[in-house]
Design a protein that fits this description.
- By secondary structure, the chain is of the alpha+beta class.
- It is built from 16 helices and ten strands.
- Strands 1-2-7-4 form a four-stranded antiparallel β-sheet, sandwiched between helices. A two-stranded parallel sheet has the order 3-10. A two-stranded antiparallel sheet has the order 5-6.
- The termini are far apart.
- Keywords: 4Fe-4S, Cobalamin, Cobalt, Cytoplasm, Iron, Iron-sulfur, Metal-binding, Oxidoreductase, Queuosine biosynthesis, tRNA processing.
- It is found in: Cytoplasm.
- It catalyses: epoxyqueuosine(34) in tRNA + AH2 = queuosine(34) in tRNA + A + H2O.
Length: 374
C-alpha cells in the first residue's frame, strides 16, 4: 500500500489547463516530468530521473550475489526476497520511480589522503562527517511529492532514502542518473560518485528517461585500490571483505586476517571512489547539513577512543555514526590503534579498556596491544 497518499478536495487541487489531474506519456506527461526535474533542482537535488519497475537483469545479479553468500551477516538482504528488485511488489500500484541524487562531499575538510597516510588519525568515510542524510533527503522528497500533488491532485507515492528493500543504484541507473561502475557504486560523467540517492515510488504513468551507458572502459583503478580485495571482479563486491561492511554492518569479531588491511579506517572506506577518474569532476556539497561536524575530518584515534558512551551519544547525535553504537565504535578504533605507529600514548589508552564489559572490545584491544608490542 502507498503511504504518503494525501487526500484533498480534488476541486481545490484542480490542475491548470495545460496539465490535467491524471497525466500520461504524451506531451502533457512530458511537461509534468520536466516540472518535477526543475522542482527537484530547486529543492537541492543535483538531478532527477524517471524509470519503470522492470529490474529483471539486476534481480538476477542480486540473486547470484545472495546465493554466493557475499552479503555476509546482512540477513535482511535475503529476507526481503524479490521485493527489493520488484518495486510493484514492495508498493502495490507502483508504475514509475522518480530517482534523485544529492552531492555530499563536504567542503573545507582535511584531505582524505593525508588522513589515511597518518596512522594516528582516524579516517571516517566522507558521507558520515555531517548530519544524517536520511532525514534531510526524505524531507525534500516529501516536499517534492507535495509539489507534484499541487498540480495533479492526490496520487499514490512513497518516499525512500535507504530505508526499505530498494535497489536504489539500479533504479538510478535506469532513470539516467549514471551507470553502476566496476566498484558497484553509481557513477556520473559530470559529478562522479559522491552523492546520496533517494526515490519516490509513484502511480503516475510518467514518461521514461533513457539509461546512460557505462563509461568505465578498461579502467580497473577501483579494483586495484581496494585494501582488502573486496571487489573480487568488475561489478562484483564481496561485502564480507569490504571495510565499510566490516566497520558498520558486521556484528561481533572482525576476522583477524583483515584487521591489518583496515589501517586507520574506523567507519567506512572511500578508497574505490577516491581513485576513480570520474571523481575528478565531483561536485562539492552545497547542503550545509553535510559539512563536517565536531572536527571528525581531522581527529586522532586516541581522542575518539577516550570517548565514553555518553560522550559518543552526545557527539554523534544526528549522525549516521550513532547507529553502530559505542561497542562497535570502540572495536573499530581498537583495530585502528593496533595498526598505528607504536607509541606509549596508544598503549596507555588501550590498557584502560582491557577490562571493558564487551568481549568484542576486549578481544580487539588485546590484539591491538600485541600489535603495539605490549
Amino acid at each position: 500500500m502507498f503511504r504518503g497518499r494525501r487526500h484533498k478536495n480534488r476541486a481545490a487541487c484542480a490542475a491548470p489547463a495545460d496539465l490535467p489531474a491524471r497525466v500520461g506519456e504524451g506531451s502533457r506527461g512530458f511537461l509534468l516530468s520536466q516540472r518535477i526535474k526543475t522542482w527537484a533542482l530547486e529543492l537541492g537535488f543535483d538531478r532527477a530521473g524517471i524509470c519503470d519497475t522492470d529490474l529483471t537483469t539486476h534481480e538476477a545479479h542480486l540473486l547470484r550475489w545472495l546465493d554466493q553468500g557475499r552479503h555476509g551477516e546482512m540477513d535482511y538482504m535475503a529476507r526481503h526476497g524479490t521485493r527489493r528488485s520488484r518495486p510493484e511488489a514492495l508498493v502495490p500500484g507502483t508504475l514509475r520511480i522518480i530517482s534523485v541524487r544529492m552531492a555530499y562531499w563536504p567542503p573545507q575538510t582535511r584531505d582524505a589522503g593525508s588522513v589515511l597516510h597518518d596512522s594516528e588519525s582516524a579516517f571516517i568515510t566522507r558521507y558520515a562527517l555531517g548530519r544524517d542524510y536520511h532525514k534531510v533527503m526524505r524531507k525534500r522528497l516529501q516536499t517534492l511529492a507535495e509539489r507534484i500533488e499541487s498540480v495533479t491532485g492526490p496520487f499514490g507515492y512513497r518516499a525512500f532514502v535507504d530505508s526499505a528493500p530498494v535497489l536504489e543504484k539500479a533504479l538510478a541507473e535506469k532513470a539516467g542518473l549514471g551507470w553502476i561502475g566496476k566498484h558497484t557504486n553509481l557513477l556520473s560523467r559530470h559529478h562522479g560518485s559522491w552523492y546520496f540517492l533517494g526515490e519516490l515510488y509513484t502511480d503516475l504513468p510518467l514518461p521514461l528517461d533513457t539509461p546512460e551507458r557505462s563509461h568505465c572502459g578498461r579502467c580497473r583503478a577501483c579494483l586495484d585500490a581496494c585494501p582488502t580485495g573486496a571487489i573480487v571482479a568488475p561489478y562484483e563486491l564481496d561485502a564480507r571483505r569490504c571495510i565499510s561492511y566490516l566497520t558498520i554492518e558486521h556484528p561481533g569479531s572482525i576476522p583477524e586476517p583483515l584487521r591489518p588491511l583496515m589501517g586507520n579506517r574506523i567507519y567506512g572506506c572511500d578508497d574505490c571512489q577516491r581513485v576513480c577518474p570520474w571523481n575528478r569532476r565531483a561536485k562539492v556539497a552545497v547542503e550545509p547539513d553535510f559539512r563536517a561536524r565536531h572536527g571528525l575530518d581531522d581527529v586522532s584515534l586516541v581522542t575518539l577512543f577516550h570517548w565514553d558512551e555518553p560522550t559518543f551519544l552526545r557527539l554523534t547525535e544526528g549522525s549516521v555514526i550513532r547507529r553502530i553504537g559505542h561497542e562497535r565504535w570502540l572495536r573499530n578504533l581498537a583495530v585502528g590503534l593496533g595498526n598505528a605507529r607504536p607509541s606509549p600514548t596508544i598503549r596507555e589508552a588501550l590498557m584502560k579498556q582491557l577490562e571493558h564489559p564487551s568481549t568484542w572490545v576486549r578481544e580487539h584491544v588485546r590484539w591491538a596491544l600485541d600489535r603495539q608490542g605490549q
